[in-house]
Design goal:
0% strand, 7 helices, 154 residues, single chain, mainly alpha
């Protein structure tokens, strides 16, 4: 009889499953909240970075034209959209596959500083709060992927 009973989940197994479901719910909340505000978050973080690093937009700087500024917005938006995808799937694979792989080489080849991207992501992390933006659990899930991406730049 003991052998049959061990095939079924015990209390500890059920608690583990419950925790996984709660994290999934929190990730979905974070993904939904980010999706509804992704353009505003991108714009706010980018504008903050351009104020923090005024040399970026000066002649000869990496963002010395409107086209280059728009590319910076695009890149930050791309990273936030990948984080959104990570929240949905519960994995860093989208960031690993489409965001992080080769980023150092690309930025080095184009002579682009990474500090502004890190600053924009840190600003986004520090600006997000609960309960204004999302629940504490959802915010914690969002921070997991933001921190993962921030760490990848070092």
């Amino acid at each position: 009889m003991r052998i049959i009973a061990e095939r079924f989940p015990n209390y500890s197994d059920l608690e583990c499953i419950r925790g996984g479901l709660q994290r999934t719910y929190a990730r979905m909340e974070a993904a939904e909240k980010l999706a509804t505000r992704i353009d505003a978050v991108t714009k706010e973080a980018s504008e903050w970075v351009f104020r923090k690093y005024p040399d970026l937009t000066k002649p000869g700087g990496p963002c010395d034209s409107q086209i280059k500024i728009e590319k910076c917005y695009r890149d930050l938006s791309h990273y936030l959209r990948l984080i959104n995808y990570c929240l949905v799937v519960g994995s860093t694979a989208p960031l690993d596959d489409w965001g992080i792989t080769g980023q150092r080489e690309v930025y080095r080849a184009l002579n682009l500083p990474t500090a502004p991207y890190v600053s924009a992501l840190q600003y986004t992390r520090n600006r997000a709060c609960s309960p204004r933006d999302m629940s504490p659990q959802a915010l914690a899930e969002f921070w997991v992927y933001l921190d993962y991406l921030i760490d990848s730049f070092s």
